[in-house]
Amino acid sequence: MPTYEYHCPACDATYELRQGFDAPTTHPCEECGKGTAKRVLHAPPIVFKGSGWYITDSRNKLSAVNDSESSGSEATVGSASESTGEAAAAS
What we know:
Elements: E1 3-8, E2 13-18, E3 26-28, E4 36-40, H1 55-90
Antiparallel strand pairs: 1-2, 1-4, 3-4
């Protein structure tokens, strides 16, 4: 069962309760009994482990791939235009 943090705006108390996932998000304050305590949401911590998460990890690989793709596509376009030029000259 997870532990949730609750905050009561009436008495400014903050406390934790261990409840199930289906527990309501509001309930009467356990400190003062007058206010309505609401569940406080926190962003979960995220840890990126391994390579490939930073731009510097893949910069050399990407630039090499982009260079080979661009030179390969230019060679294909150039050879296609040369072959059509030769075919027109032969006619």
